Amino acid sequence: MVEHIVLFRFLPDTPTAKIDEILTAQLALKNQVDGILCATAGADVTGRAQGFTHCAHLTFESQDSLAAFYPSPAHQGGRPDSRGH
Predict the structure, then answer these.
(1) pLDDT per residue as tens digits for the range 6-45
(2) pTM, entire model
(3) In angstroms, what CA-CA distances link 30 with 14, 21, 22, 47, 83?
(4) What is the arrangement of strands in the sheet containing 54-60, beginning at the earlier edge strand?
(5) Phi-psi region for residue 50, left (φ > 0), alpha (ψ -120 to 50) or beta?
(6) Three state DSSP letters for the chain
(7) Closest by Cα among 53, 50, 62, 55 to 40
């Protein structure tokens, strides 16, 4: 198994609905991409994340399945834009 972690640093004025949209899109990848075994996402609750506010965590079957994910349409175009939020 291979773990893939994405950290988000949302601005304080980012609407909750936008954050939910982005995290829901991360969770949906499990049903869109072969080789993803598990997908989780959520907010930092420790206050020790060095400014990062949220995280998505994907578990892949193998390094090959992770490598195949990067150029996939689900990774390249099917996600909400999180920049500037």
Answers:
(1) 999 999 999 999 999 999 999 999 999 999 999 999 999 9
(2) 0.84
(3) 25, 15, 14, 28, 22
(4) 2-8, 54-60, 36-43
(5) left
(6) CEEEEEEECCCCCCCHHHHHHHHHHHHHHHHCCCCEEEEEEEECCCCCCCCCCEEEEEEECCHHHHHHHCCCHHHHCCCCCCCCC
(7) 55
User: How many CB atoms are located within 10 Å of the residue 7 CB?
Assistant: 14
Q: Which residue has the tokens 């990062």?
A: 52
The pLDDT of residue 79 is above 60: no
